[in-house]
Amino acid sequence: MLAYLVLAAAPASAQGPGGAAALVGDDTRPETAAPGAAPQGPAAGGVTTGTPVSTAVGEIAERLTGVRALAPASAPPEVLAAILAANSIAGLPYKWGGGHRDFDDTGYDCSGAVSKVLNAVGALDSPLDSTGLKRWGKRGRGRWITVYTNPSHAYVVIAGLRFDTSGRGGKGPRWRAERRSSAGFVARHPEGL
Predict the structure, then answer these.
(1) 153 with 192: CB under 8 angstroms?
(2) Residues 6+ apart with CB under 8 A from 56
(3) Reported pTM
(4) At what angle do helices 77-89 and 110-120 cross, to 10 degrees?
């Protein structure tokens, strides 16, 4: 699946060269281009590029509603799909068991949100809980996508940004600018990513 993230106008702080994703506060939801369609958008290749989020930008972003991530220009299609899937549920409420019966839900718990992202990249056919994610995929950190899991919680880091249901900025699936310790978590990743 090939997806392009397109925003009408990305802030100057989110544009520029780089290999990390960036957060922007914009209620405009990214759109996808049909597979094989010509890229569109404000930056080269139809993908708005980003630089790592600074502390100041991260703090501002967490106070905005509708915070979405932008993919780096160098990201493979699977990473674009992962970011698009996370963006599609960012801001929904925390719902225990959410995303476990079906990838599409009205709210998500931690592993349901991670499962939604992994399904979007073709790495998961049915939702897993945090214990199931401990046995999923390849061991260790991935180049682009890393799932951190333990028996009671799971979150995913995509292109350097954490997508998690807990942290500053409210409960529920959100992009989180602050770092989280991975102590006590097992790192897993999709093969090739």
Answers:
(1) no
(2) none
(3) 0.71
(4) 140
Domain borders along the chain are 12-189
What is the phi/psi pair of residue 161, to 5°? -110, 140
Q: What distance in Å separates the CA atoms of residue 131 and residue 133, rounded to the nearest whole number?
A: 5
> For residues 97 and 74, what is the distance between their CA atoms, to the nearest angstrom?
34
The pair of structure tokens assigned to 55 is: 């502390």
Q: Say how many residues make up the chain.
A: 193
What is the distance of C-alpha 4 from the center of its chain? 14
CATH class of the domain at 12-189:
alpha beta
pLDDT in tens, the chain (193 residues): 222 223 322 333 333 334 556 554 433 333 333 333 333 332 222 233 333 333 444 444 444 446 789 888 889 999 999 999 999 999 999 999 999 999 999 999 999 999 999 999 999 999 999 999 999 999 999 999 999 999 999 999 999 999 999 998 789 999 998 889 999 999 999 999 9
Q: From the CA atom positions of the chain, what is the Rg in Å?
A: 15
